[in-house]
Design a protein that fits this description.
about 160 residues; mainly alpha; about 0% strand; elongated
Length: about 160
């Protein structure tokens, strides 16, 4: 295998033992694209929740002001989480701390949603999709980011 300097790696960095430098760049790009696409879910759902309130999940819902306020607040947080993930896309291999923090927040929300499933039964399909994103997809992306950060591509 070529020395690190020939691959454009900084001193102390080693190339991934099974991926050539071009593979590292492709891996980085694939993660960036996946996070960009995956980020559409919280951004779209968060924006819809802010604009529509609880009617987003139950057409014609005109609930109590406290429920509406809380729903729109949590939707705003969801929107912010999606935007925060998008902000990590440039230089994603160097943003591990923020990526893990956002993932922990999303996972905690998924656990809360899972408790609701246990107490009240399965919600509609879009909510189950969200649960899968929160408890499976997002942690898998975090592992991907962590692995990439251990063997970053050349600059």
């Amino acid at each position: 295998m070529a020395p690190a300097a020939e691959l454009g790696l900084d001193a102390g960095m080693t190339p991934h033992p099974r991926l050539p430098a071009i593979g590292l760049l492709a891996n980085r790009r694939a993660l960036q694209i996946t996070v960009a696409i995956g980020g559409l879910v919280p951004v779209a759902a968060g924006l819809a929740g802010v604009l529509l309130g609880p009617a987003m999940v139950q057409h014609g819902f005109a609930g109590a002001p406290a429920l509406d306020s809380h729903f729109r607040y949590l939707s705003g947080l969801l929107l912010g989480i999606g935007l925060a993930y998008w902000s990590l896309i440039p230089g994603i291999e160097r943003r591990g701390g923020a990526f893990r923090l956002l993932t922990a927040i999303v996972f905690a929300g998924g656990l809360g949603r899972a408790i609701g499933v246990g107490l009240h039964g399965a919600p509609p399909l879009p909510m189950l999709f969200g649960l899968c994103m929160e408890l499976a997809v997002t942690p898998a992306l975090c592992v991907w980011q962590w692995r990439l950060s251990r063997h970053p591509p050349p600059a």
